[in-house]
Amino acid sequence: MTVITNHKFQKHWAALEARAAPAPGVAAKSSHSLRPRLVCCTLTGIDAGVPFETLQEVSRRHSYVEFGVLYSTSKQGKGQYPSLSWISKLALQAQEQPGVRLALHVCGGAVEDLLTGQGHVTEVAAAFPCILIKRLESREGYTIEGAAAALKTTEQWVHERIQDGTIRVTRAKWDRRRLYITEPMIQRLKEALARPRREKPLSKDWLMLNGGAAEAGVCTTTLIRWAEAGDLPRRQSNLGWRYHREDHREAVRAQARVYWENVRFHRATPPEWLQAEIL
User: Are 81 and 110 in contact (CB under 8 A)?
Assistant: First the structure.
């Protein structure tokens, strides 16, 4: 007894059987019927879960059936994308035991290998009487998660390279909701990893926490509260947080002026530079 583990194929086969069988109570039509004759029907997604004996049986009962084998460089061995070695074995069986019609469906990046005559897919394709190229224009790409995994880095690092313009993401033509990173962009990411971006050293105008608090005449807790509220931009460094940007002192002083105008503690002493401005 033949066991089919590819449930999608099993479903297609059942549909063929139903189409071939006459309806209950209706006599089978003669060969002279005007009903259109099915010339070819491709069942795509043949993998290791479908025994070769099953393909032979279907071919004997339905001579118009063709079996499509999907091949993808990045997906081979996963789902309905069998490995190249299994595809080679299948093609050899079909040559030794004629009667099974096969077609190789080349997907994604393997298309370029096939057209340029590179890679093992070219040798395997020579054994197939029919080759179908799928999605040549869209190619295959990586999701952000997939790119991070392939490059052994973090997703945050990939997002940063998108934001700083190192790479750009592509939107799939057949599904505008799908974003992916193409192979050329992956190469740019590899180059970026090989040459890490060097952060410019912070100038002396960037003050550390204690220096910023002293400049504003407040405690460090108040300075942190300003930064967390978004009133005082800050930047992370290897020595901790630095506050604001190039004219940092002026920014701190601007925030300090607002603070000291509304301070409730009249005995508190504002910084010397602010006292000089008041006088």
Answer: no
- Specify the pLDDT at position 137: 46
Nearest to 243 by CA among 208, 216, 279: 208
For the chain, the domains span 39-134, 144-194, 209-278
Contacts of 180 (CB under 8 A, 6+ apart): 140, 141, 142, 143, 169, 170, 172
d(CA 206, CA 245): 7
In angstroms, the CA 92 to CA 65 distance is: 19
* Nearest of 127, 131, 141, 59 to residue 87 by alpha carbon: 127
12 CB contacts (<8 Å, ≥6 apart)? 43
Buried b or exposed e, range 161-181, using 16+ CB within 10 angstroms:
bbeeeebebbeeeeeeeeebb
Which residues does the chain have with pLDDT short of 70?
1-36, 135-140, 172-178, 196-205, 236-240, 244-250, 265-267, 279
Report how far residue 166's alpha carbon sits from residue 221's, in angstroms, rounded to the nearest whole number: 38
Is 61 in a helix, a strand, or coil?
helix
User: If you average pLDDT over every residue of the chain, what do you get?
Assistant: 77
Of the candidates 205, 149, 146, the one whose C-alpha atom is nearest the C-alpha of residue 181 is 146
Residue 150: alpha-carbon gap to chain centroid: 10
CATH 1.10.1660 for domain 209-278, yes or no, is yes
Six-digit token string for 6: 């590819």
Amino acid in position 275: Q
The closest of 73, 72, 67 to 90, measured between CA atoms, is: 67
Confidence (pTM)? 0.42
